[in-house]
Amino acid sequence: MFKEFKTFIARGNVLDLAVAVIIGAAFGKIITSLTDDVIMPVIGKIFGGLDFSSYFVVLGTVPAALAGSSDYAALKKAGVPLLGYGAFVTTAVNFVIVAFIIFLIVRGVNRMMPPAPEVVAEPVEPADVTLLREIRDELKKR
Questions:
Q1: pTM above the 0.90 mark?
Q2: Shortest CA distance to 43 belongs to which of 96, 5, 80?
Q3: Residues 72, 84 contacting (CB under 8 angstroms)
């Protein structure tokens, strides 16, 4: 069993996937920090608040201990139903940033790769034209 596992792990694509997951996780932390610590505070400042991720709408009753609280995390932990549109916008911005950076990476790699040779396919002659040509050639022979 250990030998099979070793063979499985030694495959190139499994190792490549493991490396990609580790790098992806580290990259995700960088993007999260960029979004949470740099971009969203600027967007929040433009829209009148400093912490855009804490924008929410309370959908249920707030416990007396948290009455008047504007702490999204505390209200969510207390089980208060919230519509956290600020957290959603932050996550959406994270996604757009990651997608754009991946686009730039793929675009750069595609530019570095040599272009694939063009394969020119000869047009396929329809069967009726081939048959007519054969008939014509036979008539010429007679």
A1: no
A2: 96
A3: yes
